[in-house]
Amino acid sequence: MVVFILIVHMWREAHLHRVVEDDVEINALPLSFDGSVILYVSDLHKRRLRQEDIKPLLGQVDWVLIGGDVAEKGISWPIVRRNMQLLANIAPAFAVYGNHDKHAGTAQLARIFEETGVRLLQDQVVSLQKRDSSIKLAGAAYRSRELSNHLTEKDRNDCVIVLIHDPLQAKSVHDYADLILSGHTHGGQLVIPFLGPIFLNQAYRNVSNGWYTLKRMNGYPDGKMLVSRGYGTNHLPLRLCCPAEMHKITLKSMKTK
Q1: Which domain range does residue 114 map to?
Q2: Using CA atoms, how far apart are residues 235 and 199, in angstroms rounded to an integer?
Q3: Tens of pLDDT along 121-159?
Q4: Is 168 helix (H, G, I), strand (E, B) or coil?
Q5: Record's InterPro entries (predicted)?
Q6: How does DSSP classify residue 188?
């Protein structure tokens, strides 16, 4: 009976709809972007988004950023198409690939992105506009170090948001970034109190989930990185002490102080 109750609890934790809200101060953020809102979603895998969960976000978000692993091998593609359409209906949407997307098939996924209006960023930099100001949004290809070649010395003084799948990729771009959004770890997915995540690779133990400060060289203000627990699950459709989450991030300019 105890085992059954625990499994039910773990299933529920994996299927919760939870939106974590954070205010994030960014030194280089132009005043016209103060109060702008990002919806960040990563690691959907096979999980289906529900329209009733997404509907309250309509009109509340400026951009949707998708941190990879929106698919996995053997997935039913209509699930992915519907998920991407729901997210793209909220606000202009941008995405990067994750490792499971590569296994699922990027040719089909690229078509879905194009058809639903989600812009794929593969070591690319685009501008986001508000009135007479702009910030940079950069997206890194999975396990690539090429993105830094598309960022210049001038970008260190501008506001740059970087979208990556694997938080370990931050090492190659963090010196340019004011804000990095990542996922991949699922927060460990199964976390034993006092022992921590039982299946998480040792390399990710120090960046399993949450907010981190990234030191930048030459006196530039520190950057920030979010590692999301993700919205879906990998392998087992269960979570323990590690609830599913998406993120509503409000950008705050330090220039208003």
Answers
A1: 2-256
A2: 11
A3: 999 999 999 988 999 999 999 999 999 898 887 778 889
A4: helix
A5: Calcineurin-like_PHP (IPR004843), Metallo-depent_PP-like (IPR029052), Metallophosphoesterase_sf (IPR051158)
A6: G
Q: Which residue carries 């927060």 as its tokens? A: 187
Q: Structure tokens of 110? A: 């690229």
Which of 95, 97, 81, 79 shows the shortest CA–CA distance to 39? 95
What DSSP character marks residue 44? Answer: -
Name residue, tokens 């039910």. 8
Q: Which residue has the tokens 């090429």?
A: 146
79/71 Cα distance (integer angstroms): 9
Provide CB contacts within 8 A for 196, sequence distance 6+: 188, 205, 208
CB atoms within 10 A of CB 63: 18
Task: Read off the pLDDT of residues 50-78 as tens digits, 9 standing for 90 and up.
Answer: 999 999 999 999 999 999 999 999 999 99
Q: What are 130-134's contacts with CB under 8 Å, separation 24+?
A: 130/30, 130/32, 130/33, 130/36, 131/32, 132/32, 133/30, 133/31, 133/32, 133/33, 134/30
Nearest-CA neighbor of 84 among 119, 55, 58, 52?
119
CATH number at residue 16: 3.60.21
- Closest listed residue to residue 118, CA positions, set 57, 167, 70: 70
Gap between the Cα atoms of 16 and 12, Å rounded = 6
**How far apart are the C-alpha atoms of 194 and 208, rounded to whole Å?**
15
Q: Are 61 and 90 in contact (CB under 8 A)?
A: yes
Number of domains comprising the chain: 1
